[in-house]
Amino acid sequence: MESRLAKAIYNASPVWLQDLLISAYGYKLYRLRYGGVFHQQLARLERIQAYSVAELAALQNEELQRLLTHAQRNVPWYRRRFAELGIQPQEIDLNSLQQLPILDKRELKAHSELFVAENLPARSLQTLNTSGTTGSPLVIKASRAALQTNYAFFERFLRQIGVGSRDRSITFAGRLLLPPRQKGAPYWRRNLTMNTLLCSSYHIAPDTASAYLRRIARYQPLYIDAYPSAIYQLAQHVLTSGEDWGIRPKAIVTSSETLLEHQREAIEQAFQCRVYDQYGSAEMAACITQCERGSYHVNPDYGIVEIVKSDGTPARPGEAGDLICTGFVNEAMPMIRYRIGDMAVADDRTCSCGLAWPVIGSILGRLDDVIVTADGRRIGRLDPLFKGLRGIEEAQIVQVALDRIRVNLVPGNDYSSRVGEALTAALKRRVGADMQVELVLLDRIPRTAAGKFRAVVSQLEPQTAQPRNDAAVESQ
Fold first, then answer.
1. 220-237 confidence digits (pLDDT tens)
2. Are 174 and 451 a contacting pair, CB within 8 Å?
3. Measured between alpha carbons, how far is 341 from 173 in angstroms, rounded to an integer?
4. Which residues sit opposite 303 in a β-bridge?
């Protein structure tokens, strides 16, 4: 399905044949993801799930030693960097990890070939691509075993919330399902191998939402896996229509975008089930999942996650900082103290769900998706702006200059100039009265090439967006 010829054949085929082609491709992916070491790793992960804090710390130290020794011996970039800094892997543990340098995405992009392990045959590695929403995408190499282990972690998460990957499901993601010539429904295709209905996230609009909801109601999924923005649009339609669509999944899983609190509330109200958010990456650097109590848990057997402020010190509980990730899963291209490009709020509490896993307060989103003020503040989580404002279907905040913000709005039936004035005033209360705010009304807010919605977009040059060392990150 990935080659140009395969795409041409798919686009020229009737819908029933497209379903079969997708199912055949799904079978290929199923063998890649769920074969090999998958079941062995899943069984191991489910045992680790019951570990105590002390047992998890011992496991992390063991995995860290294994990773650092492998990186020094087999990965050119780390071999050279460790030698330059006089670092000996056997001297590093959880308490001294901060002695290692932070790896920035720019360095990884510039020298990506030096991060690939030399002891693994190149032809045996799979190639993954990040979505590349901030420029050129990263090319990540991974072994089949790493992919299967990665999916074992996701399967453990699904089982924790009472579902499984082969259960009847619906997926909204960024893959293009509809041929360019198709203008109307159906906006979905079947993957019979995985028992899932794949729905296009590109075609959801006020005049198509009812068609989506009718199909979901007929399909009756046990769970829905979606971009937050996609399922939120449908939730809005459910709530405004006043109809009972009869859609009652056991759970809704969100990922790939920052889940905003007003989105969660609307989705849970519309579909009368819990939303479980999860965070991962193509780099296989971190795995963060929500439990039944709503806490965000770092999966400690996947890797080590630090939250670090702009001055390089660890964030204290309640403070925001950069996610610095060390992943244990992918030996083909290890990420050690990798600044992944997202921000989170630190927390040190123990969750009552029974897991001994570390908790973080919340995931704020991408580093470049914060508003930077002239006095050096970085302001994230601006979604409370829209709480209580009627008549706004969707909104996106774009910082076009240090003193200017554009707000793209999709107005609803109840929108009026007073709503816009209230929004502008609320925004200025957070970013400062000197900030110029322009409201732009649109029919639809564009998505990225991967179909993702970005609630906040910064168009500042990277050097402009860097805060002062003493500038705090405000979570609104």
1. 999 999 988 889 989 999
2. yes
3. 21
4. 327
Distances (CA, A) of 170 to 213, 233, 249, 253, 371: 12, 15, 10, 10, 34
Q: What angle do CA 371, 376, 377 make, to 5 degrees?
A: 50
SS3 231: helix
Q: 196-200 and 169-173 as β-strands: parallel, antiparallel, unpaired?
A: parallel
What is the set of domains in the chain, with CATH numbers?
Answer: 38-163+250-366 (3.40.50.12780), 371-475 (3.30.300)
- For residues 290-324, one letter each, b for 16 or more C-beta atoms within 10 angstroms of the residue's C-beta and e for the rest, the string is bbbeebbbbbbbbbbbbbbbbeeeebeeebbbbbb
pLDDT digits (tens, 9 = 90+) for 321-374: 999 999 999 999 999 999 998 889 999 999 999 999 999 998 887 655 668 777
Rounded Cα distance, 375 and 90, in Å = 44
CB 252 within 8 A of CB 228: no
- Identify each DSSP E strand in 280-369 by its residue range: 288-290, 296-298, 303-308, 320-327, 338-346, 359-366
Could you tell me which residues are beta bridge partners of residue 297? 289, 359
- What letter represents residue 118's amino acid? E
What distances in angstroms separate CA 355 from CA 49, 129, 299, 305, 435, one per listed residue? Answer: 7, 32, 10, 17, 44
Contact indicator for 323, 132 with CB cutoff of 8 Å: no
Q: Strands 436-441, 404-411: parallel, antiparallel or unpaired by DSSP?
A: parallel
Measured CA to CA, the distance from residue 309 to residue 316 in angstroms comes to 9
Structure tokens at 367: 């580093």
